[in-house]
TrEMBL record:
It comes from Fuscibacter oryzae. Signal peptide: none annotated. Keywords: RNA-binding, Transcription, Transcription antitermination, Transcription regulation. Belongs to the NusB family. Coiled coil: none annotated. The lineage of its organism: Bacteria, Pseudomonadati, Pseudomonadota, Alphaproteobacteria, Rhodobacterales. This is Transcription antitermination factor NusB. InterPro entries: NusB-like_sf, NusB_fam, NusB_RsmB_TIM44. GO terms for molecular function: RNA binding.
Length: 147
């Protein structure tokens, strides 16, 4: 349920960035039209609505800090505004969990690497996501990596 919520959170953050919609509008749309919905094209997975909402809201609330952490994890020539918007949304969702949700960093990294694989099945992007999230996690929660 939380894995689906994370995937939906990345999609929602992407949609907010590209459409300019508010957190409230996008969350409502996802909750009404995506979670467990069935369409001709197939069925959407159920998801943890509370976790979805928390990730999206905290990603927006902490976006400045998360983007700065992401920039520090990226090569200087590639600031966050130059990367793929789906990956940018993924970093923001994962950053919310690292900064303000208490999810164990290794769980966050593994879950969002899986999300990257869902969007980019060739594997190249998931390795990039893994490296950046590892750096972000060590910055956000260094105590989780000591010893």
């Amino acid at each position: 349920m939380r894995s689906a919520a994370r995937l939906y959170a990345v999609q929602a953050l992407f949609q907010m960035e590209t459409s300019g919609q508010t957190v409230k509008a996008v969350c409502r749309e996802f909750e009404v039209h995506r979670f467990g919905a069935t369409y001709d094209e197939g069925e959407f997975a159920e998801g943890d609505v509370d976790h979805f909402r928390e990730v999206v809201e905290k990603a927006v609330n902490w976006q400045g800090k998360i983007d700065q952490m992401t920039d520090r994890a990226l090569v200087a020539a590639w600031p966050i505004d130059r990367i793929d918007p789906v990956i940018r949304a993924l970093f923001r969702a994962a950053g919310a969990e690292l900064v303000d949700m208490g999810t164990p960093p290794k769980v966050t990294i593994n879950e969002y690497v899986d999300v990257a694989k869902a969007f980019f099945p060739d594997g190249k992007e998931s390795k990039f996501v893994n490296a950046v999230l590892d750096h972000m996690a060590r910055e956000a929660r260094p105590q989780a990596f000591s010893a």
